[in-house]
Amino acid sequence: MKLFYGTTNASKFRHMQTILADLPIQLVSPAELGLSLPTVEENGATPLENAEKKALAYWKASGMACLGLDSGLYIQGLPDDLQPGLFVRRVGGKELTDEEFIHHYSALARQMGGRAKARFVNGLCAVDKDGQIKRAMGPGISTDWFWIVEKPHPLRVEGFPMDSIAVYPGTSRYWVEGDLEDAQQAKGVGPAEGFRRFFTEFAAGDYRPHLEELVWTTTK
Known about the structure:
- By secondary structure, this protein is an alpha/beta fold.
- The chain contains six helices and ten strands.
- Strands 1, 2, 3, 6, 7, 8, 9 and 10 form an eight-stranded mixed sheet that branches. The protein has a two-stranded antiparallel ribbon with strand order 4-5.
- Strand 1 (2-5), helix 1 and strand 2 (26-28) form a beta-alpha-beta unit.
C-alpha cells in the first residue's frame, strides 16, 4: 500500500518510515511526487483536528491514501494559558529554528528548577484513496511523560530539536541517544506500537477510530 506523508521535514519522514518498516506500507514523500504541499490552516482545537485537516488537504492534492499527524506539548506545572499546546514551535508569534527551540525550552526547564515534566499528545488521521477516514488520539499513540532538561545534549537531529533536551524518565539518557540506538522506538515504545497498530488496521480496511480519553491539563 502506498501512503503519502505530506511533510517536508526529512527527519519526521525517516522516523515514520522506520516505524512502519515491517508493514506492507510504502511511504511516499512530496518530493517523490514532485508535489508542492497546499497550505493548511492548522486552527483546530486539538492535534486530531489539525491532523485531519492535513490528511484531507494532502489527499485532495495527491489523489493518494494519505496520513496527517499533529502534536501538542503539555508541561506539568504550567497554567493552561502558558501551555505550548499546539504551538510548540511558535513562540511570541515567531517560528523557532531548531537551536532557538532548544534554547527556549531549556531555559524554561531552568526556570522550573532544572527540569520540566512534559509529554507530547499526538493526533493521527489517515484517508484512503476513496476518502474513507481513520482517526486516533490519546495515550496509545502519544509519548509517555518525559523530562525537558536545562542542559542540551551536544548531538542534534535536524527537525527534532526536542530530542536534544528530552530525557527518559528515571534515567539520564537523552532521546537523541535513543535515536542512534533504535530509531523506531527512540521516543518510547508506546507511540511506535500505537502507530503500527493503527496502520496495520488501516491497510486491512479497518477504519474504526481509537479515540481514548486523555487528561490534557498537567496539573493533576
